[in-house]
Amino acid sequence: MNHINLIKKNINSIHKRRDSVFTKYSSIKKNLDELDIQLNYYNKLLEVKPQILFNQGREKKYVYGQVYFYESHTSNIKKSYRFIIGKMDENKSRKEWEEICLERFYNKLAMIANP
Known about the structure:
single chain, 2 helices
């Protein structure tokens, strides 16, 4: 009879320790999930594809850049950012226009994040 009580006591002790460890694990898991969501958001920002819009504006002489991106790491809504990146007579390649577009976009994000 004494052995049975000892086994039950050990079982209760192990359950309490397991509950304690599970509680710690749950809070750490929640933090890890939040960090994963933020990492995903910033990785997606690095993967944005700029759209180059030629012959825009007055008299069709401007080149615009347009980028679609998620507003925040918790949002499912994409936001559009459109801006002038130069004039048609600058004779740059599409790759050069895309680099200018991305540079302006990241500068804009940096200004928003650090006013």
